[in-house]
Amino acid sequence: MMVLRVGIVAGEASGDMLGAGLMKAMQAATPCAFEGICGPAMAAEGGLSQFPMEALSVMGISEVVGRLSELLRIRRDLIAYFRKVRPDVVIGIDAPDFTLALERALRRDGIRTVHYVSPTVWAWRRYRVRTVAASADRLLTLFPFEPAYYAGRADAVFVGHPLADAIEAQPSPDKARAELRLDEGEMVIALLPGSRVTELRAHAELFVKAAQRLALRYPGCRFVAPFVNRETLAIFDKALTELKAFDLPITRLHGHARLAMAAADVVLLASGTASLEAALIGRPMVVVYRLSPVTYGLARLLSRAPYVSLPNLLLGRGVVPELLQDAATADGLVRAAEGLLESPERRSQMTAAFVELREHLGHGANDRAATAVLELAGARPRPPVIASCAS
Predict the structure, then answer these.
(1) Domain that holds residue 36
(2) Tens digit of each residue's pLDDT (9 = 90 or more) over 269-287
């Protein structure tokens, strides 16, 4: 049986998870070999990396400038490699400033390309619709409102968000606390200051200061903080040291972000995929985000979206408090957290809205995404196995 050769490129932790789910679903349908840039979850599904995924995990305009020569070299070398090995299809997962140019170069060379996750054209830089159309033979979107932006210009297919399938609705906080060895009766606040190094540099001190003030306000409360790798944890630990906060009752974790959120009464987090995870888990949250002044200024100038967090964007209203840039202060974060901790009604209203959000995302996203890729690549999925019954 022929093996489908697939180029696949992810640039950060959320893309790694999307890629791993897609790879697993594709392998279930037909034999595939994957290589490109893979994170640990994709590597566990058999993906081979030509470069480390961490090299692409940069956020913000000024932050990218400092690494531009390295990023351009990696992209140039990867394009040359794919041109040499000629995969049946190349999939770029999110990271549009890196992957779209790669896809465009390969598509011009006759290699079929897929872009997985629409850029936020509904928020800013609407011209990227044309860029996607020129770069990808097919676009896979996570959210149902996105294909309309590409109508008549690109082959955009709504596949849904795999998190809606992967995350249990309203998991038991007591079970999560038992797994983390936390007391069932204590107040638990989850801290998620981001998955990228640049996010930790912007947010670590803010989160530690807020935790110090919340610990004074709520004696006996417990904090739990998950980190994606040692580097991000080290930045957070440095903030703990500089602020003399190592006496905080805080459990620091390598991974296990969803378990930390499930255990929490309230989640304080940096805007990103984590906000969608918290919503699907059904936990009240406060979203913060800081960028460099240059990046934030440009974002404000060009943005059309009224919100930045995924729950608010999907619901079309401001359900989740958002503290952005100058408003993202320790005092502001404490006040927002107190507003949820001391109001069962507000927490209940927020979690009810999250039930509505889950319905928007559909089910079977990994399988739908795999089908869309295999159709484009010209591969036929294996027929389902039908059990026979003796008469």
Answers:
(1) 4-162+364-377
(2) 998 889 999 999 999 999 9
